[in-house]
Amino acid sequence: MTTNTRTKRLAPLIILIISLALLIPGITQPLITLQASLSHQAMVETGQTLVEQQDMHPAMKSMASQFLGSLKVSGDSLVYDKTRSILGTAEDLWQFGYRFVAVLILLFSVVIPAIKSILLTLACLSSSSTRLLKANALLSKWSMSDVFAMGVIIALLAANAASSETAAVNFNAQLHSGFYWFVAYCLLSTVGSQLLIRKD
């Protein structure tokens, strides 16, 4: 490898090493929190609707409706609250018996992206990088890290969109640092890969 070639590969090498470093917190740090809360007032209103739909004595129905209608409650009860990282999610799926899904998450969102970054880093250091770049191109078809990141965003939007003031159960989702580390890894890995391919 000539000095000129080494200089050209220095920028992609630095970017790829940084992307590999970003992958570690990306898969270990908290990624997303999902919460579900039960609205007390909405539950009372749902109970009132159910009473009105029941086939029961009119006097009993009237008493039950009046009782429920007179109740004025406020607040919510948190019924579900989970914060998970990518590795934590895979671990939970494994423990609950969804082992195939856990393996798929680890394989396509962790193992293959890591191998790709390592191959590209080695390609920067190697005098003959053709085989390494071909192997990377083959693995790129199976890497799902960007798709996984988009899936997390869609889950966040769907959970927040499902919530309303009149709903009995409200959902809330919050992104954490792990998501941003992972997205940064995806972006830098792509940039480093494109720079390396163009240099060669």
UniProtKB/TrEMBL annotation:
Transmembrane intervals = 12-32, 100-125, 137-159, 179-197
Q: Which Pfam families match?
A: PqiA
**Which controlled-vocabulary keywords does the entry list?**
Membrane, Transmembrane, Transmembrane helix
- The domain of life for this entry's organism is Bacteria
Name of this chain's protein: Paraquat-inducible protein A
Organism of this sequence: Endozoicomonas montiporae
